[in-house]
């Protein structure tokens, strides 16, 4: 009986060349841009106690209610593959007493995240995010800085994204507004979608997310949270906006912007790319001044964002790769010279030369064809003599082993 064909699990994918390089280049760009602004690289585990996300992300969110990959370990503990980064970073901040360091503490990370969603273009069950967080200060300059850093990262990757911005105020304002919105929606309940009606009690704000025509018509006349901000929160938002304006960053204030996580306070934002279709969010985030305390830490303001690696690369299309450094191909003219060829390739590589070596038993003719296919600039032919062929000019000459590195570095 033939073995069953093995495939990647639903909603996951293999990263194949040349995407692997593109993903690494994006990570390197993030390290560069964030590093320059004082964000230090961290890593947290890919799985955490389920309670961290239930408490941190919020019981009423889609993520916690429907999308977590939760399992029991052999000790009967409930663990969950991380669906987002902020909760884990905040847990680490508390666990390692980072509130005792000079504030703000600026951190960034990247890696895989997991959500049990219905897969479609740009939406996967395992995806990669780049994530940046600034903890320990409520300075609006941090909100603006983080938004501008994400804009820079997106721009550098050819992503033309629209920025939506809003403020949710503090938890109390949001609660009061939630009651007001709930009452408003109840009066027009018959026009709302079944889903929105089902959510009315727990999270009426989600009605802003709905595509349902009746719900959308109702929402156009709904009271706006942005008009209910306390003076302090309104002033904070005005400061964030002024900094973005001065930096020449375009945005649209959209009071219907609802993020799928419960912990946000004050600033929220999202970058959207029209190139992406239905899953248009490339990156977003906001301020979460109550989260660290919810997780058992001291009251600590924080702000951050997460951006999707796959969506940045999809929306950015093929960015022009920098010219590759020149390539040497070490050809084996006689089988008994294979060891010498191996040593020469190693020497060249250690001297910083990009080098390929014949490793498939090709004929000399086959090797030259292969070198050409690889785009080699030089072929080092290892026979009784050592010869160097310049692939561009066609020139071929005998060369001493000691002169080789210099010859191919030109
Ligand atoms: P969120 O934490 O939901 O705001 O997500 C932040 C970013 O991660 C989004 O803007 C997307 O770019 C990306 N993202 C979220 N969920 C997925 C998914 N299921 N598949 C691919 N990318 C995702």
Bound small molecules, deduplicated: adenosine monophosphate
Low-confidence stretches: none
Counted by DSSP, the helix tally is 14
Helix and strand element order? HEEHHEEHEEHEHHHHEEEHEHEHEHEEEH
The description of the largest β-sheet is:
8 strands, mixed
Fraction of residues in helix? 25-40%
Coarse structural class: alpha+beta
Distance from first to last alpha carbon: 58 Å
Q: Give the mean pLDDT.
A: 94
Report the count of strand segments: 16
Give the overall shape, derived from the CA principal axes.
elongated
Q: Provide the spatial order of strands within the biggest beta sheet.
A: 1-5-6-11-10-9-7-8
The value of Rg in angstroms is 27 Å
Question: What portion of residues belong to β-strands?
Answer: 15-25%
Give a brief description.
This protein is of the alpha+beta class and 410 residues long. Helices cover 36% and strands 21% of the residues. The site of adenosine monophosphate (AMP) has 18 residues, from strand 6, strand 10, strand 11 and helix 11.
Architecture overview:
With 410 residues, the chain is of the alpha+beta class. The protein is built from 14 helices and 16 strands. It has helices at 19-36, 50-56, 62-67, 86-95, 140-156, 171-187, 194-199, 213-220, 231-246, 291-294, 309-316, 338-350, 364-374, 404-408, and strands spanning 40-41, 47-49, 70-72, 78-81, 105-114, 126-135, 162-167, 252-253, 265-272, 281-287, 302-308, 327-332, 354-357, 378-382, 386-390, 396-398. The radius of gyration is 27 Å and the shape is elongated. It starts with 18 loop residues before the first helix and ends with a helix. The model has no long low-confidence stretch (mean pLDDT 94). Bound molecules: adenosine monophosphate. Adenosine monophosphate is lined by residues 84, 115, 117, 122-124, 127, 129, 260, 281-284, 306-308, 310-311.
């Amino acid at each position: 009986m033939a073995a069953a064909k093995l495939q990647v699990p639903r909603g996951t994918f293999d990263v194949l060349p040349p995407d692997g390089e593109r993903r690494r280049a994006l990570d390197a760009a993030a390290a560069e841009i964030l590093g320059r602004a004082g964000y230090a690289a961290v890593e947290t585990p890919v799985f955490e106690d389920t309670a961290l996300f239930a408490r941190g992300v919020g019981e009423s969110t889609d993520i916690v209610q429907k999308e977590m990959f939760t399992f029991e370990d052999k000790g009967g503990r409930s663990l969950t593959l991380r669906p987002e980064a902020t909760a884990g970073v905040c847990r680490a901040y508390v666990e390692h007493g980072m509130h005792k360091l000079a504030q703000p503490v600026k951190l960034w990370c990247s890696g895989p995240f997991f959500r049990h969603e219905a897969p479609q273009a740009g939406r996967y069950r395992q995806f990669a995010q780049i994530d940046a967080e600034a903890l320990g200060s409520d300075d609006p300059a941090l909100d603006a800085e983080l938004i501008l850093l994400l804009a820079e990262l997106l721009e550098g990757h050819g992503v033309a994204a629209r920025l939506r911005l809003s403020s949710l105020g503090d938890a109390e304002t949001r609660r009061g507004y939630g009651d007001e919105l709930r009452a408003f929606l109840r009066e027009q309940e018959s026009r709302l979608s079944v889903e929105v009606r089902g959510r009315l009690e727990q999270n009426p704000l989600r009605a802003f997310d709905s595509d349902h025509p009746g719900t959308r018509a109702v929402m156009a006349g709904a009271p706006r949270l942005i008009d209910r901000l306390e003076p302090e929160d309104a002033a904070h938002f005005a400061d964030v906006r002024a900094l973005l304006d001065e930096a020449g960053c375009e945005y649209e204030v959209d009071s219907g912007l609802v993020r799928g996580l419960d912990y946000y306070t004050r600033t929220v934002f999202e970058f959207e790319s029209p190139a992406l279709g239905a899953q248009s969010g490339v990156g977003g985030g906001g301020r979460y001044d109550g989260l660290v305390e919810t997780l058992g830490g001291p009251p600590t303001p924080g702000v951050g964002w997460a951006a999707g690696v796959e969506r940045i690369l999809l929306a950015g299309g093929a960015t022009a790769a920098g010219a590759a450094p020149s390539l040497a191909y070490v050809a084996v003219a006689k089988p008994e010279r294979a060891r010498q060829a191996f040593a020469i390739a190693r020497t060249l590589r250690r001297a910083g030369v990009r080098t390929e070596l014949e490793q498939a038993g090709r004929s000399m003719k086959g090797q030259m064809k292969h070198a050409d296919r690889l785009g080699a600039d030089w072929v080092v032919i290892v026979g009784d003599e050592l010869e160097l062929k310049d692939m561009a000019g066609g020139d071929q000459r005998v060369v001493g082993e000691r002169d080789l590195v210099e010859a191919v570095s030109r």
